[in-house]
Design the sequence.
């Protein structure tokens, strides 16, 4: 994912409500940024092979990933993808700077964009067969196996409009073993999700080490986080409710607001000050682990200042504004009855993503549920139900944590036991065998070597 961008500025606003799971936020309107809803994304593809796949097979796999996003939800007006042809030259270590850049740029100053593809407002999908582009350029600090982002926005840096071009770069591990082609597909879906404007959520940390629960981990979750047992499994090629929720927010259809509800509120420390960077999760009581929606309280950063490995100081320090703490959240949910809980992001890879060196991503108290009498002193396991109807916003669902300091033995997240009902009605592995669909042979040897997926 995005590591550096050209220009970062603006500060936190206490009225900011938007989410953890959006990559780009308009610094003026505070709205998340995507492509124009329903637009057509015209894309070009590297003419080379991808690992064991021929170019034609790789393009078919990419198309399958695009179909998954296009079919997100009747309430999401997701852009359509249209293949426009092969790039004129194979993209490799000697010419990649013409096609991909770490720098985000804007149509108002298009001539100053770093890459030719940006200046041409051209969306490209690159096959990085020797890892040069990913490891030397796009993910030079951490290394990565694949990458996706937006490359150009309409408007200017202070008030950007839509994403108008993007890129996905795929390393060969994406197709190094045809027996796990569905995993490769999941990686492409993940990277296209970034290109569409989604960032990484942190949901169901309780199950990170349990491979039997991997279908409960959203496709957009950070795959490389240590301890996630089977993120890159087959489940990633099918979207989870949290993934779908993000797309509905970015690409609302004309009917989405009348079919969805909102739970909003704020997280406070026991002394009443805002708790920033707490992970807030709404769980549908009918299917609490699959139909769950997460958002980080108060987190909003300027355009392009996405999380992963980026120094988030750029979120606050420019313009001399400093940090404006906020504990607010605003979660879009389908109609239903929910519980709400607050927790810490325990995984250090994810936590460091949130605010390296800036604000401690620690919970000032124990993980707890929201309840009607919520205060700093009640038992953290006391919970109340929140019924949300279509078109309704439930406001002031506020949680006050039980401390205003961090102690070592804090309860970081609510544990669930094996006796808890864990239904996966909507969280299933993708049942399609894409090796068969794409006419691939499964007899090829594995080239091995999975790496970080950003
Ligand atoms: Zn990612």
Sequence:
């Amino acid at each position: 994912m995005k590591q550096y961008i050209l220009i970062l500025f603006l500060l936190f606003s206490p009225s900011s409500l938007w989410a953890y799971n959006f990559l780009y936020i308009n610094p003026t309107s505070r709205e998340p940024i995507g492509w124009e809803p329903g637009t057509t994304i015209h894309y070009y593809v590297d003419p080379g092979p991808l690992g064991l796949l021929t170019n034609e097979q790789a393009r078919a796999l990419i198309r399958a990933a695009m179909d998954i996003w296009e079919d997100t939800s009747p309430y999401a007006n997701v852009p359509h993808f249209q293949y426009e042809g092969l790039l004129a030259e194979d993209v490799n270590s000697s010419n990649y700077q013409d096609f991909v850049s770490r720098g985000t740029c804007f149509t108002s100053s298009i001539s100053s964009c770093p890459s030719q593809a940006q200046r041409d407002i051209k969306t490209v999908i690159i096959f990085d067969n020797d890892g040069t582009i990913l490891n030397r350029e796009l993910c030079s600090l951490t290394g990565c196996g694949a990458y996706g982002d937006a490359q150009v926005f309409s408007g200017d840096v202070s008030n950007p409009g839509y994403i108008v071009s993007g890129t996905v770069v795929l390393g060969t591990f994406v197709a190094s073993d045809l027996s796990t082609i569905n995993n490769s597909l999941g990686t492409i879906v993940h990277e296209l999700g970034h290109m569409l404007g989604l960032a990484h959520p942190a949901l169901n940390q309780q199950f990170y080490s349990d491979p039997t629960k991997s279908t409960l981990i959203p496709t957009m979750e950070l795959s490389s986080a240590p301890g996630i047992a089977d993120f890159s499994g087959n489940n990633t090629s099918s979207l989870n409710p949290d993934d779908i929720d993000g797309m509905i927010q970015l690409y609302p259809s004309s009917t989405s607001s009348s079919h969805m509800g909102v739970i909003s509120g704020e997280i406070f420390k026991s002394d009443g000050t805002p708790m920033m960077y707490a992970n807030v999760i709404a769980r549908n009581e009918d299917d609490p682990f699959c139909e769950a929606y997460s958002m980080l309280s108060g987190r909003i950063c300027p355009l392009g200042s996405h999380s992963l490995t980026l120094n988030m100081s750029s979120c606050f320090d420019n313009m001399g504004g400093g940090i404006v703490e906020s504990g607010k959240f605003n979660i879009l949910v389908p109609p239903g009855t929910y519980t709400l809980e607050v927790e810490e992001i325990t995984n250090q890879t994810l936590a460091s993503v949130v605010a390296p060196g800036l604000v401690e991503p620690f919970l000032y108290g124990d993980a707890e549920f929201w309840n009607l009498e919520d205060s700093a002193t009640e038992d953290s396991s006391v919970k109340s139900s929140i019924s949300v109807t279509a078109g309704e916003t439930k406001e002031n669902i506020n949680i006050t944590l039980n401390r205003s300091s961090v102690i070592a033995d804090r309860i970081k997240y609510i544990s669930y036991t094996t006796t808890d009902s864990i239904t996966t009605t909507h969280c299933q592995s993708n049942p399609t065998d894409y090796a068969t669909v794409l006419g691939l042979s499964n007899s090829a040897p594995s080239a091995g070597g999975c790496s970080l997926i950003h």
Summary: Residues 40-248 form a domain with the Collagenase (Catalytic Domain) fold (CATH 3.40.390.10).
